[in-house]
Design a protein that fits this description.
With 191 residues, the protein is mainly alpha-helical. It is 72% helix and 3% strand. Strands 1-2 form a two-stranded antiparallel sheet. Helix 2 packs across helix 5 and helix 3 crosses helix 4. The chain is elongated. The relative contact order is 0.12. The N terminus and C terminus are likely disordered.
């Protein structure tokens, strides 16, 4: 019976499956979108529309993932016990909500940028421009979108460094809560 209690406590200490999937899907999409955003002018002219279209479609996917993630979190996704260190827990919560806010701003600016530019999606259909010929406005929106995307990447990088610090410096189980590939120390075979 004691063994059953240990299993349920272990399960409570981990994030649930949907939260883990949302987290890593968000991370993969953010990284991919940032790389495409940085290299969008490199493909040959013939491929540029398709490359930008991939960026826009993945951005739309990220909007859906972020919305689902927020609904899941606000409607009862598994709550993991906070970090033992109250200051670290408060910092983590602040970073998470700041990331959500920055992602929302970045995605909103991305939609606005595509709509301001007017864009072709894989040459199948066209997003109409609300500012045809207004290069200054289009450039400003694009610059804000890039700035916000860079801020997301920097904050996500700090988030990753914090997670790795928990694992390698503090040697606690914070990273194992989100990364099921790490086994808990208590489950590691003894030497």
């Amino acid at each position: 019976m004691h063994h059953d209690v240990a299993i349920s406590q272990d399960q409570i200490a981990r994030y649930d499956g949907p939260t883990i999937v949302f987290h890593w899907l968000t991370a993969a999409l953010v990284g991919t979108l940032w790389v495409i955003g940085q290299t969008v002018n490199f493909p040959a002219r013939a491929w540029r529309v398709d490359y930008r279209s991939v960026h826009i479609v993945l951005g739309a996917m990220l909007i859906c993932v972020l919305a689902a993630r927020l609904v899941w979190r606000l409607s009862g996704g598994l709550a993991v016990p906070p970090d033992r260190h109250r200051l670290l827990a408060a910092g983590a919560k602040a970073i998470h909500w700041t990331l959500y806010l920055l992602l929302t701003v970045t995605l909103g600016l991305g939609v606005t940028y595509a709509w301001a530019r007017g864009d072709s999606i894989f040459n199948l259909f066209r997003i109409p421009s609300f500012a045809p010929g207004n290069r200054t406005l289009i450039s400003q929106i694009g610059g804000w979108h890039a700035l916000a995307a860079n801020a997301v990447l920097i904050l996500a990088g700090l988030h990753a460094i914090a997670a790795l610090s928990h694992h390698y410096v503090l040697r606690d189980e914070v990273l194992a809560r989100m990364a099921p590939i790490f086994r808990r120390r208590s489950q590691r075979p003894s030497a």
